[in-house]
Amino acid sequence: MTKQPQWLDNAVFYEIYPQSFNDTNSDGIGDIKGITEKLDYICELGCNAIWINPCFKSPFGDAGYDVEDYYTVAPRYGTNEDLVELFNEAHKRDMHVLLDLVPGHTAVTHKWFKESMKAERNEFTDRYVWTDSIWVEPDGMASIRGISDRDGSCAVNFFSHQPALNYGYYKPDPDKKWQQSMNDEGPRATLEAPQGYNAFLAQCRCRRFQSGYGRLSGEK
């Protein structure tokens, strides 16, 4: 088991939903610069860490929890450069910044899902939980079907616009050939994808990361 970083022992978090926090350009929507502007205020409250709800590009069908691009800040919130500035200013104040990572599903507009809907096989065919027939639904999960040329139903998490990423089944049912093991190529590629996110955030000058279900941390 990975040991948690020592700073968490005394961390006091301030959670921020960017859209409703602080608007610096008068468009009615909070933004990354608005968070940077309020760092001193957050420090004065006695907080030494902030947890930012999803801030990456999204159609916003579920408050940003339907991610379209894990590598681009949502335009309504600003730019990747604004995120770099936020990390730099937080680090100057010995603060820690945690970003929400949504690893269980994407938006239907994500390029991976668009590719997975195609009838012909490609590198993204097995990145989502698809059955092998439009008439077969995944057990215990809602699904979407009849939306593409692919013959199958795709499992969804929560809403119909959040197709479930494929991490494989712990014990695949041999009678259901569409169920893949965790060691199959598609699930392995899905599991390795966060390494790319870490590399991207490193370029944003996050000096260290703590990865876990749903969290990426840019740490001093």
Which oligomeric state applies? single chain
**Roughly what percent helix?**
10-25%
- Element order: H for helix, E for strand: EHHEEEHEHEEHE
What strand line-up does the widest sheet have? 1-2-5-8
Quick description:
The protein is α/β, with parallel strands linked by helices and about 220 residues long. About 25% of the residues lie in helices and about 15% in strands.
Structure description:
The chain is of the alpha/beta class and 220 residues long. It is built from five helices and eight strands. It has helices at residues 32-37, 39-44, 80-92, 111-116, 185-203, and strands at residues 13-16, 49-52, 56-57, 69-73, 96-100, 143-145, 153-155, 215-218. Strands 1-2-5-8 form a four-stranded mixed sheet, covered by helices on one side. A two-stranded antiparallel sheet has the order 3-4. A hairpin with a 7-residue loop joins strand 6 (143-145) and strand 7. The longest helix is centred in the last third of the chain and has 19 residues, at 185-203. Mean pLDDT is 88; it is low at 207-220.
